[in-house]
Amino acid sequence: MTKGYIFAEVNIHSPGAEWDEYASKVQPTLDSYGGVFLIRGGTPNILEGDAKTGTFVVLEFESPEQAEAWYTSTDYQRILPLRLRNADARVICLPGAG
Fold this sequence. Notes:
Elements: E1 4-12, H1 17-31, E2 36-40, E3 55-61, H2 64-72, H3 74-86, E4 87-95
Antiparallel strand pairs: 1-3, 1-4, 2-3
Helix pairs in contact: 1-3
């Protein structure tokens, strides 16, 4: 089965209590869908092209369908407004190779 990935480039514009609350509540929403963090932050080394200076996140799921089911789940949608109020993001669902 092809793995599913969520790639996010997140630019936090209002760090603080709401952002911290969002960050602390993401993992429990992933657990029900078998999602795991492969990348969560760090300092990117841009090798080519332009990139914003945001935070990069990569999540892995058993399938693209599981990835999308997590994103649209009631549990994640309940905390999503915390992120939307405090950060701009580009979030993409991708199938794995193979």
